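Hi R.,

Here's the chain you asked about this morning:
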Amino acid sequence: MNLITRKTILAVDCIKCKERQHLYVGTEDLANWERGELIQNAMPYLTAGEREILISGVCETCFDKMFGEDPIGDAETEYDIEFEGNEE
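And the predicted structure, written out as tokens:
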């Protein structure tokens, strides 16, 4: 079976540094994300930084400057957070 995947080129400017990034995504993948599919499921081939600029408008470099880089480099970092509020 020969499948042809249509691609869309997205030009996205970082809202902080104004640097433009060009991302190549599947046209149907983009449509699926716009319909509510999680971006990591719709476009798993994008890096975390590429997904972030689509979600928040902030490039990876600016994101790291604002929030710091993950020292371990994984998304599984656990944080010791206690929540206060009403408990049932």
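The chain is about 35% helix and 15% strand.

Let me know if you need anything else.
M.
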